[in-house]
Design brief:
The complex is a heterodimer of chains A (about 170) and B (about 200). Chain A is α+β, with helices and mostly antiparallel strands and about 170 residues long. Chain A has 2 helices and 9 strands. Chain A has a single domain, classed as Sandwich (Jelly Rolls), CATH 2.60.120.1600. Chain B has about 200 residues and is α+β, with helices and mostly antiparallel strands. Chain B has 3 helices and 10 strands. The chains are: A alpha+beta (about 170), B alpha+beta (about 200). Chains A and B meet through helix 1, strand 4, strand 5 and strand 8 of A and helix 1, helix 2, strand 5 and strand 9 of B.
Chain lengths: ~170, ~200
Amino acid sequence: MILIAGIIAGTVLFFVSYRLTLNRVPIKLMDDAEKRLLSIRTTGPNTFHHGRAPSHKSRQIVMPSPDLVYSSCVYDLAKGDLVISGKLPPDGHYWSLSLYAHNTDNYFVLNDRELPARGFSITLGRKSRGAGSIESPTRTGIALIRMIQRRQDDLPIIQAAQQSIRCEVVKS
Amino acid sequence: MDWDVVAALLIFVVLAAAGAIGGLLLARRRLSSNVGNNPDEIKLGAWTTNKLAGSSAANALTRARIAIHGILAMHRQETIYFFALQDDLGNPLDPDRDWQIRGRGFDCRWWSFTLYDEEYQLIDSPSRRYSVHSDNVVPEVDGSYRIVISREDRGANWLAAGAAKKLMVTIRLYNPSQAVLADVASVKLPQVRRIEKGRAAA
């Protein structure tokens, strides 16, 4: 009898342990990514940090794309919703905004082809409040704006778009 | 003390602990292997892609593997990624040898090839060019491209292996066409093969 109970308990714990390990890995790595991204800025969460195209010295994340210029924001919705807005580079330049939950899911993405007016504004909160409002599955996460830098000449255009990005906390 | 009860409890605890440890070891094994037994992954020649990378629909194994090998990957509608750690014959991409990638462009807005080291980081290159992409590739007369991976300078479409101990090549297809999104297995991926060291790509 005890043998059967032990086998059942072992089988259940096998699956529980397997699943818990898989679920824990992305959350732990996202914790680390958020800490690393916060460590390169002095302003804390809910602010964008504007980077340059990664090089071999860039170690914040694995597999960085050397052709993309990143603006990153570690967000925390504890104090209210976030309004993220800004301008895009001129037509033809790739631009995208990706939102990542704390379990690494890329739950929202917007790119320049969807924004012919070359500007954007979204409200990010724990609950959707209609058009232009995005519901974050988790309290914390990462917002990443990517722009392709095809050549060195693109840099002033990209920097202008980066400097236009605003991120403000609004009380919900 | 009833030694029968102690023995029974001991058996129970050992079996339960064995189950828990077994689950942990299996998870670690599946996370550390490059490819294997994941229904979300598709193997196409030397290349592997994951049809649910970054997606909320990804299973727990996919989510964990992507977090390890490419955290903050974009959703496939924005970018599709292909990875190669081996050539077409299954040989690991030894950085002490020269390798050729030969193919044609892709049905997408923009594409790129990037080389990473054993820590999935960019490799120091004297040219400071870390990728060959649709804007900087130097095509052959027939419109195809040949990219060479080597520790030594191999000219226009060279990806530097630097001091890497292991290599991984990544293809990114930005804003892939609807046809590619509908059937990622239809993408004509380039050949990856070893070439004689120091020889120009052919």
